[in-house]
Amino acid sequence: MPHRADIRIRDPFVLAEETDRYYYLYGTTDGNVWSGPATGFDVYRSRDLEHWEGPYPAFRPKAGFWADRHFWAPEVYRYEGRYYMFASFKSEEKRRGTQVLAADGPLGPFEPLAGEPVTPRDWECLDGTLHIERDGTPWIVFCHEWLQVKDGRMAAMPLTRDLREAAGEPVVLFRASEAPWTVAGQDGTVYVTDGPYLHRLSSGELLMLWSSMSRHGYAIGIARSESGTALGPWTHDPEPLLPEDGGHGMLFRAFGGELMLAMHAPNGQPDERAVFCRIEEGDGTLKALRSR
User: Fold this and answer.
1) Residue 266: is the preceding peptide bond cis (ω within 30°)?
2) What pLDDT, on a 0 to 100 scale, did the predictor assign at position 290?
3) In terms of residue numbers, what domain contains 148?
4) Taking Cα atoms as reference points, which of 18, 10, 196 lies closest to residue 119?
């Protein structure tokens, strides 16, 4: 049974499944993260967030699947009785996009709901996350990638209730350079948007965790929706929640009731590991208490 420190993983996502009291850990698990043919996604499960059973093959592409590389950042949600995976894929012929897959259980196997991503065909997109509005409408929040637009954008789009396709046009929520804590890379014009995850505070305020580069490295910042919906408008906290060498965060509730942040750190390969950090909510914001 591997220990957390033994598992190389980027973009970790934890599903705390109440039905069997297991934590399920998904993420970018291919060894060749950036190039070459992709294998799929693995999943691990644990009772204590330290010792993990697996890996189990959550997704393996069947013959004819449109993508062959960059299988990134799977997120899994229990929604209307089934389990849905939002994940990014790419091929030489088609732009990167977020596709929705489904399974009857958290171990999979996950199968695509449709033959193509739900994100716009002509956009380079990644890191789609599911957000359910208070009226029950499902939305995807995702990144319009800096590789195409330089100043990375965060966007949102409504989905059909069955999550099979878009139910409206994409709306740009903000650009990475609008946050006061982000810094430009490469030639001074490139700003990264990565890893959105939406969380509603007990006060009702809607926050978004997202990642970019800070002056200390890969980081997680907080944006706030003035309307309390995915459409915002969004404002940015002046300083990141976690400022250095780790990111692509999400929040989950441990079985003991604690609010936990999952992220990967450090950011450099091949040393990426899942890091779990206890989060305290207070004074209208989130505070990281300790790492595990």
Assistant:
1) yes
2) 63
3) 4-291
4) 196
Q: d(Cα 38, Cα 34) in Å, to the nearest integer?
A: 9
Q: Which of 71, 76, 59, 72 is nearest to 23 (CA)?
A: 76
Per-residue pLDDT of 229-258, as tens digits, reads 999 999 999 999 998 889 999 999 999 999
Percentage of the residues of the chain whose pLDDT score is greater than 70: 99
What pLDDT score was predicted for residue 35? 83
Amino acid 154 reads: M
Dump pLDDT digits (tens) for 185-239: 877 889 999 999 999 999 999 999 999 999 999 999 999 999 999 999 999 999 9
CATH code (residue 83): 2.115.10.20
Strands (E), 35-148: 41-46, 52-59, 69-79, 82-90, 97-103, 111-112, 125-132, 138-144
| Domains: count for the chain | 1
